[in-house]
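A reminder before we start the practical. When you read a complex entry, don't treat the lines as separate problems. The point of joint prediction is that each chain is placed relative to the others, so the output describes one connected object in space. Small molecules and nucleic acid strands, if listed, are placed in the same frame. In the example below there are two entries. Take a minute to note the order of the lines before looking further.
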Amino acid sequence: MNIGLDMMGGDYAPLEAVKGVHQYLSASAQPATLFCIGDEQQVQPLLIEHNIPANTIRLIHAPEVIGYHEHPTKALKEKQQSSIAIGFHLLASGKIDAFLSAGNTGAMLVGTMYTIKAIEGVLRPTISTIVPKLNGATGLLLDVGLNADCKPEQLNQFAVLGSLYAQYVLGVDSPKVGLLNVGEEEGKGNLLAQSTYPLLKENATINFVGNVEGRDVFKDKADVMVCDGFTGNVVLKMAESFYDIAVNRQLDNDEYLHRFHYENYGGTPVLGVAKPVIIGHGISNAAAFKNMILVAEKMLQTNFCGIIKHAFMQAV
Amino acid sequence: MNIGLDMMGGDYAPLEAVKGVHQYLSASAQPATLFCIGDEQQVQPLLIEHNIPANTIRLIHAPEVIGYHEHPTKALKEKQQSSIAIGFHLLASGKIDAFLSAGNTGAMLVGTMYTIKAIEGVLRPTISTIVPKLNGATGLLLDVGLNADCKPEQLNQFAVLGSLYAQYVLGVDSPKVGLLNVGEEEGKGNLLAQSTYPLLKENATINFVGNVEGRDVFKDKADVMVCDGFTGNVVLKMAESFYDIAVNRQLDNDEYLHRFHYENYGGTPVLGVAKPVIIGHGISNAAAFKNMILVAEKMLQTNFCGIIKHAFMQAV
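Here is the predicted structure of the whole assembly.
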């Protein structure tokens, strides 16, 4: 199992990426082979400093870095020697089985779409966010920004992708799927929600429980919550800001609020593409990098992309 | 100034409505004349019990009540002697100048649309919610559910309605108007946001400051935040649930979080209709009722509906 990690992505890279690698290797009995992609001159001394023997990882030199504010398509094209471009090259050629980065999100998405491509039958890949539930469980909300405008058929597919992810990667048995909406009853909502409801209701491959409202997001009503990427992105960023407010007001000692800390989740996989690609938060720290690696490992162990391929072969 | 109050609406009516009337009358030097609409047999003894002399208010008998789960249009038609139906009748005939209720929201909206009607030029009336800002200021988000699907022209009008409300009723000087979106730059967003941005940018009657994201909702970036009613409703209910979570986790002693308590705002006016109609929260307590009356008073004192009429006469 070969996992590629962009050592240069994120505000605190490469230091926190190196620390994350160290945490992962220390905690794992049979670690995957990590392909650490980044500027040798910067990464090598940090590996030594953090007691990561050269033979426990593969250091892949990438002299260039794509910055946060660079135009994704342009940067990927022009910076072929960047850690992100090299990562996708290795992933496409099969030298690595999964690729993760906390770098330029747009470049990661463009790289995924053009290099790895959607699984046959998937109309649009999607990105999700983990939602800490009040009962201690872990929920999933999708789409959170990749698809600002959606069709009902896409939301129906997000439900399948999210449901399988919750089941196989998050370990939720028979995940309850809810449609994020403005009321409880069937028939409520905007045109998209109204047209999506019957599709979800008739979809025999998911456990659809009906509509969920904004007030149910953190409750037990549904494990997987489906919405268009506009609504989901607003919800995600609002939840993040609540956590930031709690931290600023020193309320984050609260056990529940603390679960909102992004580092616990590490990153979001792009669901519906042929190989695991995980996009991390720009402020990723060591724990976040470690958890990103663990998510990739889990996706590979469960053959998650194979499961998705199989599900979509039967036509959704 | 005659303000009509539905004494029977809300989970704790008529008791909390009576207490709210008492609070209002005690605190006001020159109170408006309150038309208290409700079941005499229930309301009269409570008025006596709370030392509200008969001559300080007008008690209007309404033998029927529209329940929470009744179908709005059907109930309004069949229960002509309900407090809500009588309230709209008094408002339409000019016997009262404003009407407020914490009762069946749907019935209040139907009553408003069919009895009071939209101001000429207003495509669709809208409802908003107050947003407590971290800097102590008061923001406004609209639409929060009356219009699940919107056109760019409607969002442009919500911007004007919200801006005037913030200025005249909330007392915000030259309110900054933001478009709720998924990114900062112009061109970001779903088709609705992309098409709305240029309209807001060219609208000389508002102080447009660009896009705001989910993470900016509680920040100082914009005083008035505009979105479709689907997104706004999800945001509103999520914010309410955060407050509930804080209360349950005993974090609501926090000064900022406490400002989320609905009672501080009392209710939401229907913006864009010819007369002030205010819809309260179902769980309204005395303070909420008092604040609803104060909002109505402020709207009448500032001739808010006249200001809207004038603004829309000049074509938005």
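Discuss with your neighbour: Chain A is about 40% helix and 15% strand. What might explain this?
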